[in-house]
UniProtKB/TrEMBL annotation:
Keywords: Methyltransferase, Transferase
Cross-referenced Pfam families: SpoU_methylase
Coiled-coil ranges (or none): none
GO molecular-function terms, A-Z: RNA binding; RNA methyltransferase activity
Keyword check for Methyltransferase: yes
Species the sequence originates in: Anopheles christyi
Name under which the protein is recorded: tRNA/rRNA methyltransferase SpoU type domain-containing protein
Chain ranges of the tRNA/rRNA methyltransferase SpoU type domain: 281-446
Stretch list, region Disordered: 57-81, 102-133
Ranges of Basic and acidic residues composition bias in the record: 60-75, 113-122
Length: 459
């Protein structure tokens, strides 16, 4: 113990100093505690130790040459790393983030020498080029309903028509937008909106009164065959993104016709169907929610020439824009009633009718006296009138409609009610559960038409 104390005293008084990177001996520890150089503030000790190490070299190399080699080989961030190494034991739980948070970022990166080659220029970020769909979307989003420009009247010499370049600050712009976008406004104003060249031509040929035409390209007017009528009809030219915004289709045809609703639609239908013979068939639609399917059903009924189509509440509206497009002009060639309430159905029925329910959901289901038969084995000529009922693809014909059919069949006599309620079944293969509503109806209608025409030829 006495010898250790004398050794510590001798080391403290002597002027000879020993420097190592890692101080492990007892003498070195004492010398670190008693040496005045270790009482310097943190951050300055590492540079002093570095200068003293450079001054004392084992092989006697020149101080300036050794300092130049170390300066060239080691970055300026060595001071922070050396400080972390020497203070690891002094400060408990020392973290790198605590040590480097006060060190300037310039000291952590080696400076580039004047003789070094310049670094490669940073590559510019790739420029994203917008697609046509993105450009149209941006135009729609950036579109404002207030425009400083005024609507302008012009004349096209090639088509020989006058048209109006419609701006968004015009009152007619707002009226057209509300008329095309809202069915309630169309019903209040008694207007019909037909989109596309073919549907506009069908409406004009059916006898509807043309009120206005909206287009995004004047060249589309040349495809219309009733060019003389265009001279007395207002024509509005709007921007392409406006037409896309108003259209109900994914790809707008760029042409919309505004027609006035006739005061007597049944008279118009009778005039258009004067050359065809009506079959004694009434089609009842129950819960057909898809407008495209309903339009296809009305189209098939017009093609077979049934007497009328009745829509119950829950079906899509027959004058919906998508339903009109699916019908392709059939709405003006066949009587359409509804949507009506279920209790109003008996008012449209005829006495002595047979009821055929097209429903594949419940095969061999003979509840309430319904007889299950294949669609091509039904005796369609056993009654004066046929009521064909079809439901939606998901739920089929509801039980409420079946109960009403039972009540109507009982009113004709108990002996006939079992023969007047039939479930028509369409056989399917390859595990297919059911057909599309419009397809199933078309199959039954054409079989019904074939049977009735054969009976007519025999008589």
């Amino acid at each position: 113990m006495i010898r250790t104390w004398k050794l510590m005293r001798f080391c403290a008084q002597t002027s000879f100093r020993i420097r190592f990177y890692r101080q492990l001996s007892v003498v070195s520890c004492v010398q670190q505690k008693l040496s005045p150089s270790f009482f310097a503030p943190r951050g300055t000790r590492a540079s002093e130790v570095m200068s003293e190490v450079q001054s004392v070299t084992a092989d006697g190399t020149d101080k300036k040459q050794m300092a130049a080699k170390r300066e060239h080989s080691e970055p300026e961030s060595w001071g922070a790393e050396d400080e972390l190494l020497n203070n690891r034991k002094i400060i408990p739980n020392l973290k790198v983030s605590e040590l480097l948070k006060d060190v300037p970022r310039s000291k952590l990166r080696p400076k580039r020498k004047s003789g070094d080659e310049p670094r490669e220029a940073a590559k510019p970020a790739p420029v994203h080029r917008k697609t046509a769909i993105e450009k149209d979307t941006l135009q729609i989003l950036q579109h404002r309903y207030q425009d400083s420009n005024e609507s302008e009247e012009r004349y096209d010499k090639e088509l020989k028509v006058r048209y109006t370049i419609l701006q968004s600050n015009d009152d007619r712009y707002r009226d057209l937008m509300m008329l095309i976008g809202s069915r309630k406004n169309r019903e209040r104003e008694r207007m019909l909106v037909l989109e596309g060249r073919r549907l506009i031509m069908d409406g004009f040929q059916a006898g509807l009164r043309l009120e206005a035409i909206v287009t995004s390209d004047l060249k589309l007017l040349a495809e219309l065959t009733f060019k003389p009528k265009l001279k007395s009809c207002p024509i509005f030219l709007v921007k392409r993104h406006t037409m896309m915004e108003w259209s109900t289709l994914t790809t707008s045809p760029g042409l919309i016709g505004i027609f006035g609703e006739p005061s007597n639609m049944s008279e118009l239908v009778t005039r258009n169907a004067a050359g065809s013979k009506r079959l004694p068939v009434t089609v009842v639609c129950d819960n057909i929610r898809e407008p495209n399917n309903l339009g296809s059903i009305i189209r098939s009924c017009a093609a077979v020439s049934v007497r009328e189509v009745i829509l119950l509440k829950g079906c899509a509206h027959p004058w919906d824009l998508k339903c009109l497009r699916g019908g392709t002009g059939a709405h003006f060639r066949i009587p359409i009633y509804g949507p009506i309430e279920t209790y109003q159905l008996p008012e449209h029925m005829r006495a002595g009718s047979i009821f055929v329910v097209a429903d594949n959901k419940k095969t061999t289901d003979e509840r309430n006296g319904f007889r299950w038969k294949h669609y091509d084995r039904i005796d369609y000529g056993s009654a004066d009138h046929i009521v064909l009922v079809i439901g939606g693809e998901t739920y089929g014909v509801s039980d409420d409609i079946r109960n009403i059919i039972c009540q109507l069949a009982q009113s004709d006599g108990e002996q006939l009610q079992h023969d007047r309620k039939i479930l028509a079944h369409i056989p399917l293969a390859n595990g297919v559960e059911s057909l599309n509503t419009a397809s199933a109806l078309s199959v039954i209608l054409y079989e019904l038409r074939r049977t009735l025409l054969q009976l007519e030829d025999r008589t």
